[in-house]
Amino acid sequence: MSDTDDWAERLRANRAEKDEFLDEHPQSPIPPEDRDDFDGLDYFEPDADYRVDATVTVHDQPDPVEMETSDGRTVRYERVVSFAFDLDGDSYELHGYKQEPDDEAIFVPFRDKTTGQQTYDGGRYMELETERDLEDGDEVAIDFNLAYSPFCAFSDTFSCPYPPEENWLETTVEAGERHE
């Protein structure tokens, strides 16, 4: 089995595990009365072209970014890193955020041309966990196949930050979770 086959198989297993959580777990964002009709999330087919290598720029003095939320509030994040990458022959940049400096994962919310069409109209999220602190010039893999809809896509009881305009990609990212 090739590395790509292994990757696709791991991705499918991860998706099955998430579907099981959403269907059965007490903390699922899907309201209990809707779970009988839930038969799994809708996903784009795994596509290795949406696994990109990105060059890191670290923000030593992180700028605060106020993000609007699905319930009309704003939440404050700090822009801690930027990722420069190529996709479909064009260059793009996404920013990564943290609410607290000791947060382990880097939060990467984004919109693209599928937003509101094939994907949740509030945008999608990715989280990047690194084994060490990132440094300028590091190369990291960003896998859009892991892009997911926030919990507020399933229930109004959740408040979710919307991706700031600086993370709106002017391209189509047909990877990750879809929204019917």
TrEMBL record:
Acidic residues bias locations: 34-44
UniProt-listed Pfam families: DUF1684 (PF07920)
Region (Disordered): 1-44
Signal peptide: none
Ranges in a coiled coil: none
Positions with biased composition (Basic and acidic residues): 7-26
UniProt protein name: DUF1684 domain-containing protein
Organism, scientific name: Halosimplex carlsbadense 2-9-1
